[in-house]
Amino acid sequence: PQTENIVPKRTVDDIWGNNRTVVENVTTRGTSIERIPGGTRAQADADFDALKLSNVRTIGTDRRMGTLADGTNVIVRPSRDGRPTIEFQRTTDAGNVRTTREIRYGD
Length: 107
Known about the structure:
This protein is mainly beta. 14% of the residues lie in helices and 41% in strands. It is globular, with a radius of gyration of 14 Å.
């Protein structure tokens, strides 16, 4: 029988805790912009895949989106400057979608 590679699912704190990220900025709306020095698209994809996400889908050719148990949307995508980025979005009580955290891979 063929054995599948099963990646253990991890939490957001498991993946990005312990000072793994460096804060680049906090926007006026409170979005934390962080980076992982030397990070790559492959690393961003592996971190995205390691999360306990449901409803994972591909959007276009370069984005994937899934949902955490608490309802937070998680998107892996390129940023405007080209660095791979994982973005966390929450829906407010008013029904608006707001980005709360972005983690960029690379310098």
